[in-house]
Every structure is written in structure tokens, then in C-alpha cells.
Specification:
By secondary structure, the protein is of the alpha/beta class. It has helices spanning about 20-35, 55-60, 75-80, 95-110, 130-140, 170-175, 175-180, 185-190, 215-225, 235-245, 270-290, 295-305, and strands at about 10-20, 40-45, 70, 85-90, 115-120, 125, 145-150, 160-165, 205, 205-210, 210-215, 250-260.
Length: about 325
């Protein structure tokens, strides 16, 4: 339903990052195909999967190569002038989640979009999800980004779709022995707006989930894109800090709903190579964007990555905020 927007509606470019998981990407793109918003472009970035992902995606969806060209990373400028509304971008190498999404964002901005929607490939959207986001952003020019209500496959709201800027209390009590000893502690509740927000109306929040973020062109041009110094994790927290420093705000719009299939894992539960990248990203964020001294940084990482045997074997909520759809 697009009665609220004429054919001259704001231009939105959706950026979907794929890495060796074309099946989820196909499901995500099929859900996007049912969205009737009149001014919508789709940019699929393959983060050097080396498994013919883009050809498989095109074949699964029946997209004609002439109508959905593949653009090499070095040719983004040329692609800005190409006709059409569907584009594939092939990364030269996998430099991580932030850098991969930035390829799509650069193409979106070069094509003069008004908004760029970063959408993880392990999500599926409802046909009417986009209009409430665009309408709220258009009505509130102070907002750099807006996000939807995000449901897990069981239909429950993911707490990470609206978060406050983390403080020391959150890091201490979000996981490990702090959460074990005091599960309903006020730092954790405050971080996720528990008890004060029922996801029933739009409201300003500090941090949106990277699973789905509609970002204003003017804000991205002012603060820059995702920080490519991180390979995995902390992207939306860092983007919040960049927006915050320039006076931009963000909001959640629960009239927009998507489903996120991705799981959550604590730092202790991640594979070793992912754990290493996550720890590096967290240390970078704490140092560069929060200005914590090295003793505080090491203490936070130590708390979040303490051996599982100290805290029992039950699954916990994520220590490191997850964005899903990781490369």
C-alpha cells in the first residue's frame, strides 16, 4: 500500500550485504520485492564470498543480468549513471561488515538517494514496512536514522532494536557474574528501555539495530559512513556516537515491522576467530569513541569474555551488541 506517497516520493536505496549465504539473501530480496513503495532501489553487495553468490541469487530470483548489472568495487562511480533499480556490487575482498555495507552506501549516495536503508540479509520485511519509516523521517528532519520494530521468528520483540548508549553499569551487569547475581538489575533494564517502553509508538532512542536502519542522506554526508576500522560488531554503536557528536538523533517506529532470523551469542560463545574480531572492535569503540582508559577497557573485555565455567552453562543475552547478517 503506497497511498501515502506519490511517484515523486523520497528515493530510498536498500543495501543488503551477502557473504556466503545466498539462501538468506534470496529470502530477504523476495520479501523486498513485495514492497510497493514507488521509489525504491536495491543494492546487493557480495563481500567476496567466492562461491558464485551473485550468480546464484540472480538465478534464484529470475533476474535478467541486463536489468541487474554486476558492478566491480572499482567501478562504483560508473554505476552511478546506470539505468535501473537493481544492482549487484562485487567487493574486491572481504574487509568486514562495515566496509562491505559502505560499498553499497557509496553507490546509493552516488545515485542521489534521499535515504539509504541498511538491511541485513537474515531479515524478511513486511510489504508495508517502509512507508512508516520514511513518513516519520520526513516529519522529523532532526533524525539521522529511524528503525522498525524487529521480531524474532517466534514473534517476540528483539530487545536490541532499541537501546541506550551503554554505560559502565551495563557492561558490568549485562552478562557474566553481574547478570547471574542480579538478573533484573536496573542498568540492564535501562539499557533496553525495559518497563518504560512497550514498542507501541514512535520514540527517540539512542541506538538502533544494524539489522535495519533507514539513514538520512544529509546525516551520512556530514558524519561519514560506517567506521571501517572494525571488522565485526559495534557498527551501530559507533554510528550513534558519530551522529551524537553532530547533534543528530534517532528513533524507532514500531508501526514498521520486520523479522530477524539471526541469533545472538555472547563473546564467550563465539568461535575463536569471531571472538577475536569482536574483542578488537569492542576495544576500538571503547578507546576511540568513549575515551575509556586502558584499565577500564581491559576490565570490560575481561568481564564479557570470562570463562563460561565461572558463570554456569546456560545461554545468556549477548555481551556484544549484535547486528546480524555478519560477513
Amino acid at each position: 500500500m503506497n497511498a501515502g506517497f506519490p511517484p515523486s516520493a523520497p528515493q530510498v536505496a536498500v543495501v543488503v550485504l551477502n557473504y556466503r549465504n545466498f539462501a538468506d539473501t534470496v529470502a530477504c530480496l523476495r520479501s523486498l520485492a513485495a514492497v510497493p513503495y514507488p521509489c525504491l532501489e536495491t543494492i546487493v553487495v557480495d563481500n567476496d564470498s567466492r562461491n558464485d553468490s551473485l550468480a546464484r541469487i540472480r538465478a534464484e530470483l529470475g533476474w535478467n543480468p541486463a536489468d541487474c548489472p554486476t558492478v566491480e568495487e572499482a567501478e562504483l562511480v560508473r554505476a552511478a549513471a546506470l539505468p535501473g533499480s537493481r544492482f549487484f556490487v562485487q567487493a574486491a575482498r572481504n574487509r568486514g561488515y562495515a566496509a562491505g555495507n559502505n560499498l553499497g552506501l557509496r553507490l546509493a549516495l552516488a545515485r542521489d538517494c534521499d535515504y539509504a536503508l541498511v538491511l541485513n540479509n537474515d531479515t524478511e520485511v513486511r510489504p508495508d514496512f517502509l512507508e512508516p519509516l520514511v513518513a516519520h523521517a520526513e516529519a522529523h528532519p532532526e533524525l539521522a536514522g529511524v528503525g522498525p520494530k524487529i521480531l524474532n521468528p517466534a514473534g517476540r520483540v528483539e530487545s536490541h532494536c532499541a537501546r541506550r548508549r551503554p554505560d559502565l553499569g551495563f557492561y558490568i551487569f549485562s552478562t557474566g557474574i553481574g547478570r547471574k547475581l542480579w538478573p533484573g538489575n536496573p542498568w540492564r533494564r535501562r539499557h533496553f528501555y525495559e518497563g518504560e517502553y512497550a514498542f507501541d509508538r514512535p520514540r527517540e532512542v539512542d541506538v538502533l539495530s544494524g539489522s535495519c536502519m533507514l539513514l538520512r542522506r544529509a546525516a551520512l554526508e556530514q558524519v561519514g559512513l560506517f567506521d571501517e576500522a572494525t571488522f565485526l560488531y559495534q557498527e551501530e554503536l559507533i554510528l550513534h556516537e558519530k551522529f551524537r557528536a553532530r547533534g543528530w538523533r534517532q528513533a524507532i517506529v514500531p508501526q514498521s515491522v520486520i523479522m530477524h532470523k539471526g541469533g545472538q551469542a555472547t563473546l564467550r560463545e563465539m568461535p575463536a576467530h569471531i571472538r577475536k574480531a569482536a574483542r578488537a572492535s569492542l576495544l576500538y569503540y571503547l578507546k576511540q569513541y568513549r575515551r575509556y582508559g586502558w584499565p577500564t577497557r581491559l576490565a570490560i573485555v575481561g568481564i564479557l569474555s570470562a570463562p563460561r565455567r565461572l558463570f554456569g552453562r546456560g545461554r545468556t543475552q549477548p555481551a556484544i551488541p549484535e547486528s546480524g547478517g555478519r560477513p
